[in-house]
Design a protein that fits this description.
With 421 residues, the protein is of the alpha/beta class. 29% of the residues lie in helices and 34% in strands.
């Protein structure tokens, strides 16, 4: 049996932008180049002068450089990178908004692109009319639009404004309506660029749940976002882009650790901190060799399975150099998606001698696997904290009991409940 073709294939994608020094340069620079070709034989000195003058007013920016990858149906790829690395340009090329300078894009299936939401709305038309127009552009038939109109309106939750011109909407209302249209098109490939930050907290939660629902049907996801927890939650693979090049591709945890390592080096370098040269990859993350966690255990091992409410005993051996004025250890408990559930900041004594930190708490969590993240910091205050090392993945614990009869969610909160007739 022949395997199905990939949902998305990119081969050697490049994107080069021409940058003009002034608006007038768009007119006379091409004329200079054209005229230099005409006079090349008769007056080569003039041709050279014309090209030199034109070159001074025309620059090129290489946004993408030979990007290649493929995604199978149902796969989810997260793309991370600093601003200007080419992430949004790549998504716009996949969505068909931009043409690549070189390379090919092969898309198999319907694409929904959550990029610049609301940019295609006609401000003079009502929200309902814009839904019909946008849904038709995305490939839905008139019958499908009528069938899904009520669901789209309910999801956007903008009330009676749905029959008002879009020019009367706030920016948040337009974004919500555009998001609602895109996620109700049953896409084969979903492209998301920072679109999960739309609306208030309640709408964001609804948007995340809708993305989960779409992915559960086997939709392919291409996701860009600075929310690294969302990348861990939704994506099977991740890719790190830097200056238009793929520098690392692999599991989300590996790629995100490398991204944070490079980010931290840039921050330290911008502060002219000597630690930027000393920041290295260490077991479980990155940090300074003389300011990190040397040893860690949970109930004297690296991974332990416990019953609900059982005692957990953490031990950290921490190294910090003598010139750290306000040393501290921050440890966090993360769930399976990398969401921080709880944690503590532990001040450490000043000095170069290794110290042992013992922590104990009860495993009052719902059934599941949890892991620990450790950071050694120089912290004058909560607002003035410099991370010297970050390590994750060493320690984990699993709560084996299903405690949903006791509480809902991930962990219980003390409550007082009264029932009166």
């Amino acid at each position: 049996m022949t395997p199905p073709p990939p949902a998305l294939t990119l081969s050697g994608i490049e994107k080069k932008y021409r940058l003009w020094a002034t608006p007038a340069s768009r007119l006379w620079v091409p004329l200079f180049y054209r005229f230099s070709g005409i006079v090349e034989r008769a007056m080569p000195w003039l041709a050279r002068w014309l090209r030199k003058r034109a070159d001074l007013h025309l620059h090129y920016h290489q946004a993408l450089n030979g990007v290649s990858f493929s995604l199978q149906r149902g796969e989810a790829l997260g793309i991370v990178g600093h601003n200007g690395s080419g992430k949004s340009t790549l998504l716009q090329i996949v969505a068909g908004v931009l043409e690549p300078s070189a390379g090919t894009v092969q898309v198999n299936g319907r694409v929904a692109a959550l990029l610049e939401l609301g940019s295609g709305f006609n401000p003079e038309l009502t929200g309902r009319e814009n839904v019909r127009v946008n849904a038709a552009i995305l490939g839905l038939t008139s019958a499908q639009v009528r069938e899904r109109m009520d669901d789209i309106i309910a999801f956007a939750d903008i009330g009676d404004y749905i029959d008002e011109p879009v020019k009367t909407y706030s920016s948040g209302m337009a974004l919500r309506l555009a998001f609602a249209v895109q996620v109700h098109t049953d896409p084969d490939i979903l492209i998301v660029d920072e679109a999960l930050a739309v609306g208030d907290a309640a709408f964001q939660a609804k948007a995340m749940a809708r993305i989960d629902q779409i992915l559960s049907r086997g939709t392919t996801l291409l996701f860009v976002g600075h929310d690294l927890n969302a990348v861990k939650a939704f994506c099977h693979r991740a890719m790190l882009l830097e200056k238009g090049n793929i520098v690392l591709e692999g599991l989300p945890d590996e790629v995100i650790t490398e991204y944070l390592h490079r980010t931290h080096k840039r921050v330290l370098a911008s502060q002219q901190d000597r630690g930027s040269d000393e920041l290295i990859r260490i077991d479980g993350g990155y940090g300074l060799d003389d300011a990190r966690v040397l040893e860690a255990s949970i109930n004297e091992v690296r991974h332990v399975s416990v019953r609900h409410g059982e005692r957990l005993r953490l031990r950290f051996v921490v190294r910090r150099r003598a010139d750290i004025a306000h040393p501290g250890l921050i440890f966090d408990v993360l769930d399976g998606r990398g969401l921080q559930l709880t944690g503590r900041r532990v001040p450490l004594p000043v000095g170069a001698e290794d110290v042992t930190v013992d922590v104990g708490f009860n495993a009052l969590f719902q059934q599941g696997i949890y892991r620990l993240r450790m950071r050694v910091v120089d912290s004058l205050s909560i607002e003035q904290t410099v991370v010297l090392s970050r390590q994750e993945g060493w320690l984990s614990f699993e709560v084996v009991d299903d405690s949903r009869e006791l509480f809902t969610g991930l962990f219980p909160v003390p409550m007082e409940i009264g029932i009166k007739p």
